[in-house]
Amino acid sequence: DTGVSQDPRHKITKRGQNVTFRCDPISEHNRLYWYRQTLGQGPEFLTYFQNEAQLEKSRLLSDRFSAERPKGSFSTLEIQRTEQGDSAMYLCASSETSGVSYNEQFFGPGTRLTVL
Amino acid sequence: AQKVTQAQTEISVVEKEDVTLDCVYETRDTTYYLFWYKQPPSGELVFLIRRNSFDEQNEISGRYSWNFQKSTSSFNFTITASQVVDSAVYFCALSEFGAGNMLTFGGGTRLMVKP
Fold it and tell me: Which of A31, A35, A113, B87 is 20 to 30 A from A98 in CA distance terms?
């Protein structure tokens, strides 16, 4: 299967702990996106990378959140000092870039975070 | 700022009924893209369709059809002869040209198709 993969699929943590999620995009895709989806809501954009460069960050991405894509392949999303409000599904997506045309984003299965 | 509104939070139909999911969007750009995604209970978002702002032709794919009307800023999705397997949450989304392909999603419509 060469789709977008995310690890772990589920994470339960206590408030105040740090967590890190990993996303492996489709291999030829140079754009990688992170979204957050809370219960009953649509996904909200957090940040995206083109290769290793982080090109955009949402206001939702507080100082406790950091994302990296060091070699332009997989990406990690770290949340420090987790709060109960961080409980959500964290979705990763990837896409190609080709000139000015739009390229579909393919989504991974998500990591469900529960902060107790 | 871009915004997508799906006013119907939940719809319940009986199998074989037709159902239309509404989507209204706001954007200041003249070039943009509209999408529908399906999120089944498994949770993974499945891409259904993309339309660009210059193409208002309606599209049909099997039991699915989409009606794009710029005059009313709407991009509605109709499922004909619904099936139980269509039960899912459906999201409409918008991406402005040049915005790095970032998607702005609506709140979703939960469709329940009963046998």
Answer: A35
Question: What kind and span of H or E run contains B28?
Answer: none
Distance from B75 to chain A by nearest Cα, in Å? Answer: 17
Computed over its alpha carbons, how large is the radius of gyration of chain A? 14
Rama region for A60: left / alpha / beta (φ>0; ψ in -120 to 50; rest): alpha
Helix H segments across B1-115?
none
- Residue-wise pLDDT for A24-54, tens only, equals 999 989 999 999 999 999 999 999 999 999 9
Q: Which amino acid is at B43?
A: G
pLDDT tens, position by position, B18-45: 999 999 999 998 889 999 999 998 888 9
